[in-house]
Amino acid sequence: MRLPNFVITAALLCLTCQPAPALAGNQSQVAPKIDVDSIRSGAEQGNAIDQAALGAMNDSGHGVAQDYTQAAVWYRKAAEQGDSLAQFELGWLYGTGHGVLQDYTQAAIWLRKAAEQGVADAQYNLGSLYKQGHGVPQDDVQAVIWYRKAAEQGNASAQAQLGDEYAKGHGVPKDDAQAATWFRKAAEQGNASAQAKLGVVYILGHGVPQNNAEAYFWLDLAASGKVNISGIKQEDTDNLRDETAKRLTPAELSQAQERAKKWFEAHPVKPESQ
To answer: Cβ neighbours of residue 244 under 8 Å, at least 6 residues apart?
Structure first.
C-alpha cells in the first residue's frame, strides 16, 4: 500500500508553498500555488523538506514533468538527512523499480528506516517483504511484528493482513477471535478484502457467533464497494453473498440491504490507490 502521490505531494508542499489569493468577493479557501522555483532552490541548498517535496513532485508529475529518476535523486537526498516520508518513497521506488533498478534489499533498508520512525505504510510494506522473503529472509514472525505496528496506527491493509496471519496461524498462534477483530477493523475502513473475509467468518462462526444476516451485510459491502480488493475474485464474493441471501428471511434480507445502503451513504466509495 502506498499513499497516492498527490496526497504525499500535498502534505509536503503545505510546508513549502504560498496560498494563492482568493478571488475578489470570494472568501472561500483556494488551493495553494506551488512555487516550483522556490522549492527547487531550497532543495539545492540542502533543505530536506524541499528535497522531499521536489521528489514527490517528480514522482507524481505535479508542478513538473513526471520523472521517476529525478524523484529518486531528490528522495535520496532527503532520505539521507532522515526525512521519513522520503525514506519510505525511496524504498517504494526500489521495490517497484521506478527510477532505479529494482532492488528488494535496498527497498528493505529504506523502508526499515521509515518504519522505525513510525511511518505506518513503511511498516506495512516492510512486513510484506518479510512475508514474501524479498530483500530479507522470509520470516512470518517479523512480518506480524511490522503488520501489527502499522495496524495499531490504523493502516487498513495491515489490519486485514494481520487478520489473515491470525486466521492461518502464521507468525502467531492461530486465533479466530483475533482474526475476526482485525478483519473488522479493516472492514470498517472500507477494505473489501477484509469485508469479504469477515463475511466468511460469520458464515462459519469462526471467532464470532454464526450469523447469516451479518455475513450478508459484509459480503454485500465487499461485492458492491470494489475498494482495496486483493486476493479475492469478485465473482466469488458475489456468489457467496447471493448464496447467503437464500438463507435469510425476506425481512432479514431487507434489513441487511438497508443497512448496507446506509453504510455506503456514510462512506462514499473512493477510487482505489495502489
So the answer is: 199, 203, 212, 215, 216, 219
Residues in the chain, total: 274
CB atoms within 10 A of CB 253: 18
pTM (predicted TM-score) = 0.85
Q: CB–CB of 56/16 below 8 Å?
A: no
Which of the four pLDDT bands, split at 50, 70 and 90, describes residue 4? very low
Last residue of a domain, which of 111, 138, 165? 138
Identify any residues that bridge with 33 across adjacent strands, giving them in sequence order: 18
Same domain for 8 and 103?
Answer: yes
Task: Assess contact for 215 and 199: CB atoms under 8 A.
Answer: yes
- Looking at residue 237, what is its pLDDT? 86
Which range of residues forms the domain containing residue 233? Answer: 154-267
Instruction: Specify the pLDDT at position 119.
Output: 97
- Exposed, middle or buried, 271 (CB in 10 Å: 0-12/13-18/19+)? exposed
* 94 lies in some domain: yes
What is the per-residue pLDDT across 10-60, written as a single tens digit (0 to 9) for each? 455 454 444 433 333 433 344 456 788 999 999 999 999 999 999 999 999
